[in-house]
Amino acid sequence: EPTSRALQQARNIGMLVIHTREGHRPDLTDCPPAKLTRGGQTFIGEDGPMGRIRVRGEKGHDIIEDLYPIDGEPVIDKPGKGSFYATDLEDILQNRGIKTLVVCGVTTEVCVQTTMREANDRGFECVLLEDCCAATDHGNHLAALKMVKMQGGVFGAVATADAFVAGLP
Questions:
Q1: 64-89 burial code (b ≥16 CB/10 A, e <16)
Q2: How many CB atoms lie within 10 A of CB 112?
Q3: Is pLDDT above 90 for 81?
Q4: Which residues are within 8 A (CB) of 112 and not within 5 positions of it... i.e. 6 or more apart?
Q5: What's the CA gap between 109 and 86, in Å, rounded?
Q6: Which pairs with CB-CB distance under 8 Å and at least 24 residues apart come from 41-48?
Q7: Could you give the strand order of the β-sheet that contains 157-159, starting from the edge strand earlier in sequence?
Q8: Mean pLDDT, the chain, as a whole number?
């Protein structure tokens, strides 16, 4: 719910909303072997309840209906954890003159934080909406939030959906 509310308000004021999703080509040629066998398990590309796992074009790779992109909202298909690696995200942001990112998603400790770190290295300011993110484990979520806030906000700032919405015109 907080994510839907923040998304709707961003749309209402005309903010550019960009969606990302991690996935690979159906032949997995863009998936490094180490990623395929990490942890001694292979699951990327295997059949799951919503199609082949982390394969572009499969139902399970799509964005959930409540947060689905509307016309004009770019969707970045990324082969890695971060949204900048091997994508045109940086070009889209620079071409629009965007300097600050509001980041939401899953998982807080992997994709969200990796994207924030990549953005930080490229000079973008970031705000993570803590109640618009989730992790594989709540302890990981809390640790990721703590890491963002360390040293006065080493990767950016942390806020809630309510604070974000209240701060918008």
A1: eeeeeeeeeeeebbbbbbbbbeebeb
A2: 29
A3: yes
A4: 103, 104, 105, 106, 128, 133, 144
A5: 20
A6: none
A7: 100-106, 125-134, 157-159
A8: 95
Tens-place pLDDT, residues 21-44: 999 999 999 998 888 888 667 689
* Token pair 């998982």 in the structure block, residue: 107
Running DSSP on this structure, what letter comes out for residue 63?
Answer: P
The answer on pLDDT for 55 being more than 70 is yes
Q: How far apart are the C-alpha atoms of 59 and 143, rounded to whole Å? A: 31
Sign of the four-CA dihedral 95, 97, 101, 102 = negative
Confidence at residue 76, expressed as pLDDT on a 0 to 100 scale: 98
Closest CA to 62 of 74, 50, 72, 70: 50
Q: For residues 158 and 83, what is the distance between their CA atoms, to the nearest angstrom?
A: 19
Cβ contact 62:71 at 8 Å: no
Query: Across residues 107-127, what is the average pLDDT?
Result: 97
pLDDT value at residue 150: 95
CB 44 within 8 A of CB 31: yes
**What is the pLDDT, as a whole number, of residue 42?**
67
Q: What tokens were used for 81?
A: 């954890």
